[in-house]
């Protein structure tokens, strides 16, 4: 006795069925892609990168047993990491310097975002010195934002890194509609 399947002798999908699936997936993708905010993803990545560079500078100060200075260059949108081998506070010949450039569209701006809530520090840092014991020379905040938010005078994309003096650790914050939210 010969067995027949419910679909007959069918072994695959027709070209028309495959085209309908492609059309439906294209419509779904067309609705979803405009909702993705790639610039905000890049801002989050750059915030993590700056936090990582600060952590690296702190570990470098501990392992080399001399100060490491991190300068936040607002105008050129970059971090400058100087290994201060003679602890004089000045970059000299023979000392290493590393420059970390921010991604296009990202900058060190606070714009209209309020300061971090108490007990966080309110001073915006332009120079951080990590000492041999891993501590920072001062408490402070580094604000980051997108050029889009700066042009719109909006705080929706604002991020902040709070530097704790005693530990030298950087805590990340994200600005939301209800205020600052600590991320780590």
Estimated radius of gyration: 25 Å
Q: Give the overall average pLDDT.
A: 89
Low-confidence stretches: none
* Integer count of domains: 1
Which second-level CATH architecture applies? 3-Layer(bab) Sandwich
Task: Tell me the CATH superfamily.
Answer: minor pseudopilin epsh domain
Supply the helix-strand structural class: alpha+beta
**SSE string:** HHEEEEEEHEEE
Largest sheet: 5 strands, antiparallel
CATH topology-level name: minor pseudopilin epsh fold
**The top level CATH class name:** Alpha Beta
* CA distance, first residue to last residue: 68 Å
Report what the structure shows.
It contains 3 helices and 9 strands. A hairpin with a 2-residue loop joins strand 8 and strand 9 (179-182). The protein has a 5-stranded antiparallel sheet with strand order 4-6-7-8-9. Strands 3-2-1-5 form a 4-stranded antiparallel sheet. The chain is elongated. The chain has helices at 15-32, 38-64, 147-152; strands spanning 68-73, 78-83, 97-101, 106-107, 127-130, 140-146, 159-163, 170-176, 179-182. The chain has one domain (38-182): 3-Layer(bab) Sandwich (minor pseudopilin epsh fold), CATH 3.55.40. It is of the alpha+beta class.
């Amino acid at each position: 006795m010969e067995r027949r399947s419910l679909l007959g002798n069918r072994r695959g999908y027709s070209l028309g069925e495959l085209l309908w699936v492609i059309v439906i997936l294209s419509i779904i993708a067309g609705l979803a892609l405009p909702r993705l905010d790639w610039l905000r993803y890049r801002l989050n990545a750059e915030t993590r990168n700056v936090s990582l560079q600060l952590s690296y500078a702190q570990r470098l100060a501990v392992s080399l047993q001399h100060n490491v200075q991190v300068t936040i260059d607002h105008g050129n949108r970059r971090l400058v990491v100087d290994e201060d081998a003679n602890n004089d506070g000045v970059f000299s010949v023979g000392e290493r310097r590393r420059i970390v450039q921010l991604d296009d569209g990202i900058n060190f701006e606070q714009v209209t975002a309020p300061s971090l809530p108490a007990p966080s520090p309110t001073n915006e840092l332009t120079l951080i010195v990590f000492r041999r014991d891993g501590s920072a020379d001062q408490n402070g905040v580094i604000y980051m934002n997108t050029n889009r938010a700066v042009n719109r005078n909006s705080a929706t994309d604002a991020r902040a890194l709070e530097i704790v003096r005693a530990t030298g650790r950087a805590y990340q914050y994200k600005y939301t509609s209800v205020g600052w939210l600590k991320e780590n």
